[in-house]
Write a structure and sequence with these properties.
Blueprint (H helix, E strand, L loop, with lengths): L1 E5 L14 E16 L4 E16 L5 E9 L5 E10 L2 E7 L3 H4 L34 E5 L7 E7 L5 E8 L3 E9 L3 E12 L2 E12 L2 E14 L2 E10 L2 E13 L2 E11 L4 E12 L1
Antiparallel strand pairs: 1-2, 2-3, 2-17, 3-4, 4-5, 5-6, 6-7, 7-8, 8-9, 9-10, 10-11, 11-12, 12-13, 13-14, 14-15, 15-16, 16-17
Length: 281
């Protein structure tokens, strides 16, 4: 990441009185090759570049403007204003919901890649409007007590999601709820990590028109040096997704990812193997 000092005049539009601000530029790109049990070979890519301009006011509040753009398809993925201070962090604009930002403890989040169609993540897109395509309110508190934070997202179309997270040196636990658009969702996730060995699990209950669906996941991981290994499963009724994968850090910011998966949608079983080269800066 490189930083460029901006002149004082560039802060006038933000009404910040600091003498200077930082413009940070970061990004990543990945290219993958994979083969499925159907005998088809495919390639794929994904990437983004993020610009973040930040300045601090005299009262200690930090103001940032963030723009994240997909460099593989030329689309804007995030664009928001952020204010952070003793009160916590407030984001206004187009970006991931706070429930999405805080669900890294889930088993599926540990998979080295994950080409699955089922997920334990709360889906804020419950009425056809995705949280990243509507300017919304996103808030995360400072620590209420050591290790405990609360957070939430409110989208003008009536979809809301809230959660709490507790973390210490050994474990992280989350509890999240979301509603609006005819779907109610409840998520519980927990993770433990000791000496590079981790166990993570999550359970999502989603109810639409009185029909309840339960999705669960788990993952076991171990990292040593530049190598990481993860194995896990996602289960939803007759559907399942199994993953075994490994990561290797080639150099700072450069990695190799390999995954073997098997997926059963209840009627058809498929499997495949993929490898991805990732670069970030």
């Amino acid at each position: 990441m490189r930083k460029i000092l901006l002149a004082t005049t560039s802060l006038v539009a933000m009404s910040v009185t600091a003498a200077q601000a930082d413009l940070s530029i970061s990004g990543s790109y990945e290219f993958g090759y994979y083969q499925t049990s159907a005998g088809t070979n495919s390639t794929g890519s994904d990437g983004n570049i993020t610009f973040s301009g930040t300045g601090a006011s005299e009262n200690g509040v930090t103001y940032s403007v963030v723009a994240n753009n997909g460099i593989h398809n030329g689309t804007v993925e995030d664009a928001y204003l952020q204010m952070a201070g003793d009160f916590g962090t407030l984001r206004l604009g187009f970006t991931d919901s706070m429930v999405d930002t805080n669900d890294g403890v889930l088993g599926k989040s540990q998979f080295v890649y994950g080409m699955n169609d089922i997920s334990t993540e709360i889906d804020m897109d419950t009425n056809g409007v995705n949280d990243e395509t509507v300017a919304a309110f996103h808030y995360q508190s400072a620590e209420l007590v050591p290790g405990l934070t609360a957070y939430g997202t409110a989208i003008p179309n009536g979809v809301t999601g809230y959660g709490i997270k507790y973390s210490n040196d050994l474990a992280t636990v989350i509890y999240q709820i979301a509603g609006g658009g005819g779907t109610d969702q409840t998520l519980v996730g927990v993770g433990f990590n000791v000496g590079g060995f981790g166990i993570n699990a999550g359970s999502l209950e989603s109810t639409t028109a009185a029909v309840k669906t339960t999705t669960s996941d788990f993952a076991v991981s171990y990292s040593f040096g530049d190598i990481g290994i993860v194995a896990g499963q996602i289960k939803q009724g007759a559907k399942s997704y199994d993953s075994v994968g490994a990561t290797y850090t080639i150099a700072p910011g450069v990695g190799l990812v390999v995954e073997n998966y098997a997926e059963d949608d209840g009627t058809t079983e498929t499997s495949g193997t993929g490898a991805w080269l990732t670069v970030s800066f």
